[in-house]
Records
---
Amino acid sequence: MAPRIATPSDLDGLTATMTAAFAQDPVWNWAIPEPRDLAVFWRFLIASALRYDATWISGDYEAAAVWIPPGRTELTEDEEEELEPLLTELIGPRAPAVLELLERFEASHPHDEPHYYLSLLGVHPDHRGRGIGMALLAENLEQLDREGVPAYLESTNPANDRRYERVGFRKVGSFSTPDDAHTVATMWR
């Protein structure tokens, strides 16, 4: 089944896939360890991203890629204002540490050259190991290459860094969680 662009009606399926995909992710499991809370957070981010025609789905939510187009923002100004209260509601006293982590994501994000930002790429655990996620990414990157636009991502799981390198990304930096327990690689293509 060919990948397709997601619509707002795909929000539930996308949220379920990303929640399952990131349940064991080193950084996101550290940040928001309860799956129910992580689902609320992903739903918030994905709902915002769906205002662009840049989120792709493979199959029946087997894999998904959430892209933010060049010159666009991941969240609206109003959503930025909602972020801290949302995190406080979800994770209570851990919210300041997670907000610090999100600030580190933002501080590391390049702003000098227009690019697509791969906010999320996830494969539902029931479909891992079949190359579905990397096939979706490769197809997306072909489109970006036709447009002549670079891409940026943050890899929150070191196990994925080589996969990204195989499709042309190169590591350009890194940052850690506020407790220095986990590292995020920043990558450019």
---
Amino acid sequence: MEQMMMSGLTELEYRIKKAIDRLQAFEPEEGYYLAFSGGKDSQCIYHLAVEAGVKFDAHYNLTTVDPPELVNFIRKQYPNVSINYPKTSMWRLIEKKGLPTRMRRYCCQILKEGGGEGRICVTGVRWAESRKRKTNRRAFEILGKTNADKVLFNDNDEGRQLFENCQMKGKRIINPIIDWSDENVWSYIKNRNIKYCGLYDEGHKRLGCIGCPLSSNMADELEKWPKYKEMYKKAIERFLVGYLERCKKRNAEPFLTDPDKWFEWWVNGKTDDWTEEQIEGQEKFGAN
């Protein structure tokens, strides 16, 4: 912030300049791979990349449990964004792997985090989103095949040379708004008169997958989009067929046998005969 005061810039102007500097520092000849979600953060990195004058192609990974309003918004407002369709749907994944939980979010890796291998990727990750991200994420990153292969360094770190010269097949990642607050994000959007998805005005804080176990409004989301609620229930029924057969062969007691009770536990964290809190219950099921 001392640099901001010395330069005579407002906080927003300082944040914008710093983000643009980050984008311009490592612009590859083929352009950036910009990970786009349609949410406020990815809108910021998209428009900042335009302002920076860097070459990029933006990609949206459709998960099959995306809010319809969000998908329509992206198609209308960002026609240049490539929509990547998954090889399998969330419903088939549940049938095979069971329901995703807070401790077992296999769906993100399969449905959302693909693409950009071997390229320099731009994401809208921000420290303000969670304590974990402030600990584990930096402005510049090199991501190998596993998290153990990740290399992190800051803007002034000598390790930036490693980023620039890295020949790894893994992703090199730039998070240009890593240090932006929520206020910075909304100030930028309003300052630039950028249209955003109307779901925010309806009270949604995040525009992720419908039924995401990390959402604080999971039950409300499933009530808002009842067709998705029914598809989740049908996927649970298909999963239970194989799950109960495996339990029988192993002579193991199943966690729950009724699909409605399973759904109730997944959404509310408890049923009539299961009273643990959501995250504890989900941790236990994920561990088992």
---
Amino acid sequence: MHKSILYGILYVSLFSACNTATHKVKEEAKGHLFIIGGGDRTEPLMERFVALAGGAGAKILVIPFASEDAEGSGKSQAEEFKNLGCTADYILFKKGEADLDENRKKLDGVTGVFFSGGDQNRLTAILLGTAFLERVKEIYRQGGVVGGTSAGAAVMSKIMITGDEAVNNDPDVSFPCIKKGNVLTAEGFGLVDFAIIDQHFIRRKRENRLINLVIEHQMPGIGIDESTAIIVSGDGSFEVAGLRSVMVLEPQFKTPPRSDENGNLSADAIRLSILLSGDHYNTTPKPPEGGF
């Protein structure tokens, strides 16, 4: 066989294999993410969560590790779900115990998982790298709903805001600047990999820290206010629900971001959208180019 024909066949075969592999990686989840920005969880919001999890047939597991009073939070939030007409329970375990059979079995038949508020760093410390967390993600991929509030919202993105600063030393003012390296992040659960999630957003005036990260990571930022949620579909689009609003910041840089000698950041174009309940949105992320 002529070499050019042979190489052509090989190229087509490799191209087809790569396309198949890419298709598998990008296969859309069948479920939803239900990400609440903190504050009061109104009954209509939680009814919507239960409906997505299967209504009266829903089986929901509350994961309250973020809370200082994990047991109290677990009990109260499980009771809240039960009052909405579904089956609900909560789970408690320590770091290193996630993959014990007794704990993984708690996820059997679960159609909704809910992460409580508190400190998101507690959630990642206990769950990152565990088969338990992978099973939670599988519930989402198979059609269930995975949600959370406050810390349980921040932990959803791959790049997770920790709440800490590196440059600002003023104890009386949080995130007063937009400077290179100030906003500290850590690895989150990665259920949202196309944007960075922030919470209590407008209520606590957290625009500076999200703008900071949008510039540095050249990735969209989604700031969710209190008593408000985004309901994310498998394709990355989302609907806003709740009492307040959601702010989306999308980098649309014409030139690479830069910083001055004092670390202050510069960016020439960030698209700002403010969304209300019932609005739908689809972020349009672009691969990072240059920058930091």
---
Amino acid sequence: MIFCKDMEVHLTILKAIILGLVQGLTEFLPISSSGHLVLAQSILKIKETPLFFDIMLHFGTLMAVIVFFWRDIWEILSALFGRDPNIRKSTKHYKTKYSARRFALYIIIGTIPTVIIALILKKTVETAFMNPLLVSIMLIVTGLILFVSGKFGQKEKSLNVINSLIIGIAQGIATLPGISRSGITISTALILGIDNEKSARFSLLMSLPAILGATILEIKDIESIDVSIGSVIAGVLVAFITGYIAIKFLVRVLSHGHFSKFAYYCWVIGILGIIWHVI
């Protein structure tokens, strides 16, 4: 992702912290982590972040999901390898109980179209990452999706195979930088009539195989660890801590029905990004 010839290659600890902050806060909030990282690298004049550093940032946010949903994950794994309990309440924000084995099945079903679409869009995504202007436009599109989802009232529909596939397709589209993964998956679930609580839980837990899969695919392309250990540690810690805080904040926002209000933020950032790269 080369933006101009005079961009810096060296990744300082300060810049690593900033990128970790951006990754952690935007990975789970519906405002597009990839879009913000592209714009942040452009503004910070970072030519391209080392692949190893990118992978470790994703590891930080992955750990945030695992720590936040550790009880749910344990119940799902237990169901897959033996008993099938109802998933218990993990936080005070969640009250729903459901079959852990069935929920795991829905995550697998939703992941399948995500993988297929991600492979189809691979070249397009790589090109899009080099175009901050396009990313800014996609942020505005994300805002529109969030705004539309807010027009649908609360319903009590349950997850099923069809819903899982549709949400998985939405997650695949979110590989495009500027389209928020959590934003489009939760919005899709809300539009399908699934309540806020189930929508958030399914979206965030479905991010685990998505993030893990993307990380594994990137590992094979590592040629060297061309970044200081200090920068890596700083970036990962910040990504983990802010990622955990972002998940907690998202759950609270959804419980109060204010999810669509993130649309205004996406519009503002998208418009500012366009102005920044046009003027």
